[in-house]
Write a structure and sequence with these properties.
Elements lengths: L16 E3 H8 L3 H10 L6 E2 L5 E4 H10 L3 E4 L2 E4 L6
Antiparallel strand pairs: 1-3, 2-3, 4-5
């Protein structure tokens, strides 16, 4: 009998590590803008996986996405949910 409780599905596992290419596609940002935000302290720090490779914890990226401010578009004006004009 198969034991379905031993491993979470790969893509639904919040502890999964994603590489830079997947990250860029996931958040629609360039490598340089991600690096810039890391240096400013505005983006999760990657994990060193080898001499020339790095990755990010999926759950940290999902938290970062959920923490981004929401916007409302009214009459061609973009406003933050809090009411501040962008």
């Amino acid at each position: 009998m198969k034991n379905d409780n031993c491993v979470k599905p790969f893509f639904n596992n919040p502890n999964r590590i994603i590489r830079e290419k997947e990250l860029c596609q996931m958040i629609s940002r360039s490598r340089s803008s991600i690096r810039r935000d890391i240096l400013k302290g505005d983006f999760p720090i990657p994990i060193r996986m080898g001499a020339r490779s790095k990755g990010w914890k999926l759950h940290e990226i999902e938290t970062w996405i959920n923490d981004q401010p929401r916007v409302i578009i009214e009459n061609k004006n973009i406003k933050l949910v809090s009411g501040e004009k962008i």
